[in-house]
Design goal:
About 45% of the residues lie in helices and about 10% in strands. It has about 150 residues and is α+β, with helices and mostly antiparallel strands. The chain has a 3-stranded antiparallel β-sheet with strand order 1-2-3. The radius of gyration is 17 Å and the shape is globular. The relative contact order is 0.19.
Length: about 150
């Protein structure tokens, strides 16, 4: 951490789960706009269309769509099509595995900065406020020099 960054070696079971999440994404993002829009959820979860996250300027649109999960929505929502349900389930599994790693890194960073232990103060706190977001872009379709 003295260098301003940390490298975390992920165990094989987490890497396998992350690959499963990434493998589920293309089928969802290739679906029709209507199907994807029907997969929008409250709390910034589910699908988010292009143009709304990183830019509010019509002359520089955001060319990234995304799909997010969070710790506030534990059950699989009643999605209308299978690829949304599969992507949600894979991302929720990844969220659960990554949550503990992020919590541990934040506790270690807080302890280094404050000079006191923070693990017990932070334990479980990330579930409510964190989210895992998968961004999807098609650079070849972008009409501007920047994707986001």
């Amino acid at each position: 951490m003295a260098n301003g960054f940390a490298v975390e070696k992920l165990p094989d079971h987490i890497l396998i789960q992350l690959r499963a999440t990434l493998a589920a994404a293309p089928e969802f993002f290739r679906a029709t706009a209507d199907k994807k829009l029907a997969s929008r959820l409250a709390d910034e979860a589910g699908y988010r269309p292009m143009g709304v996250e990183y830019s509010v300027s019509p002359d520089r649109p955001d060319h990234v769509e995304s799909f997010s999960v969070n710790g506030r929505t534990l059950e699989t929502p009643p999605f209308e099509f299978d690829s949304a349900r599969v992507l949600w389930q894979e991302m929720r599994l990844s969220f659960g595995l990554l949550e503990h790693i992020v919590e541990g890194l934040a506790a270690e960073l807080a302890a280094n900065l404050a000079g006191e232990a923070y693990e017990s103060k932070l334990r479980g706190g990330f579930r409510r406020w964190s989210r895992l977001q998968l961004n999807y872009a098609r650079p070849s379709d972008a009409r501007t020099p920047f994707i986001n």
